[in-house]
């Protein structure tokens, strides 16, 4: 029984060490990674919104050119996909 108690104690100590490692190293790393991902997503969303607004403004300022470009892109896309 002394061997099983010793093994049990060693397993408990190992589990405590793993938990301490998780608390000290892994959890903060995941937290930092999550924060960085949220910041990158926010920047990407803001950039996309800015670009969409710029395109919308340009279409309002020059509607005939926008129609011509859309027609040309549609024509080229149609030719490529045949």
Write the layout of secondary structure elements.
Elements lengths: L1 H60 L1 H19 L1
Helix pairs in contact: 1-2
Largest sheet: none
- Strand proportion, as a percent range, falls in under 5%
Radius of gyration: 29 Å
Question: What series of H and E elements makes up the topology?
Answer: HH
Number of helices: 2
Unreliable runs, pLDDT <50, ≥5 residues? none
Structural class: mainly alpha
Strand runs, count: 0
Question: What is the domain tally?
Answer: 1
Gross geometry: elongated
Distance between the termini: 78 Å
Mean pLDDT figure: 89
Task: Give a structural overview.
Helix content is 96%, strand content 0%. With 82 residues, the protein is mostly helical. The protein has one domain (2-81). The longest helix is centred in the middle third of the chain and has 60 residues, at 2-61. The protein is elongated, with a radius of gyration of 29 Å. The model has no long low-confidence stretch (mean pLDDT 89).
Write a concise synopsis of the structure shown:
The protein is mostly helical and 82 residues long. It has helices at 2-61, 63-81. The mean pLDDT is 89.
